[in-house]
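Hi, here's the filled form for the chain we discussed.

Project: internal
Contact: R.S.
Residues: 444
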Amino acid sequence: MIKMTYEQILSLLENNQLEKLRETVNLLHPADTAQIINELPDEYQTLTFKLLNHEIASDVLPDLYDEVREEILENIQQNRLVKIIDEMETDEATDIISELEEDVSKKLLEKIDREDSEEIKQLLKYDEESAGGLMQTEIIAVHQDMERDEMIEYIRENYEEVENIHYIFVVDDNNRLIGILEVTRLLLAKSQRQAKDIMDKEVISANVNLDQEQVAHIFRKYDIYILPVIDNEDHLLGRITVDDIIDVIDEEASEDAYKMVGLESEDRVFTSPLSSVKKRLPWLTLNLFTALLVSSVVGIFEQTIARLSFLAVLMPIVAGLGGNSGTQTLTVITRGIALGELTIHNTSKAIFKEISVGIINGILIGSAAMLIAYLLKGNILLGVVLGVAMICNMFIAGLVGSLIPILMKTLKIDPALASSVIITMLTDIGGFASFLGLATIVLK
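And the returned structure, exactly as it came back:
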């Protein structure tokens, strides 16, 4: 592999040195090529991809940004796309074909290798965010009665079709998964030993319909890098490799982060302004209505604020700290749900812990705020009002910050979706109501 910088590639393009560029990009690591194409100006992205040979292009295409890949697929010749897809593993080929228009994908499936076409059609039936949508059908599976030398010969005959052969799967007469065999252990076994004698019978597997987040949790929990996929009758269907799961973990983490602020994962740095506006406007509209609701609560205490105008200076302190505390709790609970740490047995313990943290933080921060308010205004009652309001709002933050994501998960709604705006609204309402309410009663 050679190394070329973005600036060197761009210079070759600007000077129209396409033959030299062709030699270069086909010697780079596909991941580096994909990164460079993603960063190139729009007018050079498709041109650079055209210079790749079919094998390199098959590795580069899945790693391109969605909008870049979409543009390339719209402009690529069908015969070239057929050759590129023929080089791909079935899981990646399925992902690409699923992005095409139905009539285009249908024609494409008719032109690619018949066996691959049938496997891809089967994979297209599974939800793309399930184990079936992640798996590849290229596997090494041996019968339980095969002897060591037979298995080694079988691997030798099929290794070009299957990458990363660390494990082989052992099946019975009905293609049911009954064991897994590490290649190193196979090589060390005596020649007459059968698969059933040297295999590991404790097989960790995933049902074909299992959600990809749960699949990622299996990889994380058991520290594995190959996972067989089975149907409801334990028939072996394919495998998922750790590189696919790294993509899933990255995708899920990004998706949760985006959802918590009302964005879609497709909204990237260089997404067109109009497209970004369409993606962000609904969330901002929801924010507008929640802000109106919060302001209506403040409006109830309009006379108190008019009489004690200095309260307006302190209001953002109560609301801001409550919102931040609620977001902290939300992040911890949402992450706990994603990692499978929260179960029906320990949920109440987690809620109690977050409420306790909120109250303790409220007491500590509230005491500091009380002292600051007294030093600034010389009014001990104002300090007490601010401190008690802070404790109340931190309690509310701990309560709603833990309850909202758990409730949304119970209702089968993604906890990251709109949780932050709901929690911010509730902590703002709680903070303003407690602060201004107490001020109305105490500061007469």
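Let me know if anything looks off before we file it.
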